[in-house]
Amino acid sequence: MTYAFQAEGLVKRFGSTTALDGIDLAARQGTILGVLGPNGAGKTTAVRILATLLRTDAGTATVGGYDVVRDADRVRRVIGLTGQYASVDDDLTGTENLVLIGQLLDFRTPDARARATELLSHFELADAADRPVKTYSGGMRRRLDLAASLVGRPDVIYLDEPTTGLDPVRREDVWRIVRTLVDDGVTVLLTTQYLEEADALADEISVIDQGRVIATGTPGELKRIVGGQHLDLRPTDVDRLDDAAAILAEVSGQPPESPGRGQLTVPVSDDTALTAAVAQLDAAGIGVAELSLRLPNLDDVFFTLTGHGTTDTEEEAA
Amino acid sequence: MSATITAPSEMTPTRTPSTTRPFGLVRHSVALAKRSLIKTRRTPEQLLDVTLQPIMFVVLFVYLLGGAVAGSTHEYLQFMLPALLTMQVTFASVQTGINLNDDIKKGVFDRFRSMPIARSAPLIGSVLGDVIRYVISIAVLLGFGSLVGFRIETNPLSALAACLLVMLFAFCMSWIFVLLGMLVREPGAVQGIGFLALFPLTFGTNLLAPTDTLPGWLQAWVDVNPLTQVMAAARGLMVDGPVAGPVLHTLLWSIGLLAVFFPLAVRAYRRRT
User: Fold this and answer.
1) Which candidate from B1, B17, B43 shows the least CB-CB separation from A124?
2) Residue A107's closest CA among B28, B121, B34?
3) Smallest CA–CA separation between B97 and chain A, in Å?
4) I need a labelling partner for A83 at 20 to 30 A (CA). Which of A269, B27, B73, B76 fits?
5) Do A180 and B7 lie within an 8 Å CB cutoff?
């Protein structure tokens, strides 16, 4: 199996703090690896090592087959980096930012301009192209930052918490962009502390906590660790809640819980539970406002894996 | 933003452009110097120290001290302005370190460091871009100086040489502040420490008063202080006085500063995480 990037046993200490305690990360070409963990888990440190910004104390990492220490310059030719804080220049315009990056990547100036125009229009920043970045909204900055990391058409892109601080609508925008990247064969390393984000984007997720990988798998696999699926039901008529509860009890073999406001939830192990429930609810004439089968969410995963929630530890050492 | 956004790389089939274009360090440094120039143009308030400050110093020194030290403001102006020019341009070089420290904190430099360019290019770019500050500082000083009566007593070519020499020295000296900018955490600390070091260097000279009026220990300091040489060279080239010796000393000091602090600054930049 060939990996677009692969890190084995990365260790990084800052003074007496161990930021990374033997981390393995890898992603196949054209996939998204989600690195999920709370603040201070070591996500940014891992990205910085893979981006050649920081040297590992132990372990090895390769990107596109090149060693990040011995062949740092070759690695830099295949990567694009979008930092935790938008790393574009406030005083420069969108165009100036992208043209500068093109020039640093050895584009001839007309090519750099063409590439900048192309990216700006595709990230819907054409109207703001000639305004200093400091006048941009948060969402525009993130888009420009993403555009900046794409100027050189990298094979591997690191997105270090690309949606931190964005409102939900803007977050969806970024997600859409990330998805189009992998469609084109780019490999993405995405760090996030949003469980929902890793679930929505990643092909594989590595959950890290205190500098260690505590679980790796597809979002589905991770969610299955926590147990079976849950059936959620909300009848339209709250007075029929008891009847609905009886049906769910019969279908699942155990009494449902009521998390509140006319809702019922029950763990199910049988694949036919949903269809059985639908048939019986219909036969009993109970109207359904909401009925869903769901995997436990990733918050549950983290709790099961670590025994504690996603409590933030101290600020991440960058 | 609509749902029709497609991967931008689909549109242009060419791969990463040729990596074999020559003179990478020069081209990258010039591109980054342009960035620095644009930033200076967009934040003109950062130019106060090279526009209003020189005027303020001329007014203060000439009219406060002129009568007492030289007996006449005109003679004092002739004595002091070339040295003040040296001081101002040296002061202006601190800002490079402040800007770089700020850049690093903001994460813009992370992007540069993750790109296939020479480690020294962003530093050289910043230092080169800030040469404009030296030019402005000199233009303001000479312009305002001539308004209040300063006259070049040599010739324009020689005066131009004085300006270039002072700029060369400041360019080399600014690597100290670049190094400082890499080592400390806050831009304010660069400024604080930078000027703490610069005051004895600039004022511990015959900038304001002739050396022979100073106490012995201070004379000893003035004699070994490189800024004394630069000021003497500027004076010699603009007004009168010995030229060859001070110019040679200035050149040697410039080369020495560059040879020591350029590698140190680049190393500190490499190590900064």
Assistant:
1) B1
2) B28
3) 17
4) B27
5) yes
A240 DSSP 8-state letter: G
Q: Which residues pair with A5 in a beta bridge?
A: A27, A63
Chain A residues touching residue B3 (CB < 8 angstroms)? 176
Q: What CA dihedral angle connects B42, B44, B45 and B49, to 10 degrees?
A: 140
C-beta pairs of B238-241 under 8 Å, 24+ apart in sequence: B238/B81, B238/B82, B238/B152, B238/B153, B238/B154, B238/B158, B238/B159, B238/B162, B239/B78, B239/B79, B239/B82, B239/B152, B239/B153, B239/B154, B240/B153, B240/B154
Nearest CA-CA partner of A52 in A81, A27, A32: A81
The number of helices, as runs of H, and strands, as runs of E, in chain A is 11, 14
Report the C-alpha gap between B233 and A280 in whole angstroms. 100
Q: What is the pTM of this model?
A: 0.79
Q: pLDDT band for position B26 (50/70/90)?
A: very high
| Joined tokens for residue A114 | 């063409």
Q: Which of A111, A117, A77, A110 is nearest to A93 (CA)?
A: A117
CA distances to A11, A20, A25, A29, A218 from A215, rounded to whole Å, are: 17, 15, 11, 21, 10
Q: Do A83 and B107 touch (CB under 8 A)?
A: yes
CB contact under 8 A, A81 and B110: yes
DSSP state of A92: S
Q: What is the pLDDT confidence band of residue B167, given thresholds at 50, 70 and 90?
A: very high
Which tokens is A258 given? Answer: 């009521």
C-alpha distance from residue A84 to each of A181, A189, B90 (Å): 19, 13, 36
Which tokens belong to A36? 């999920």
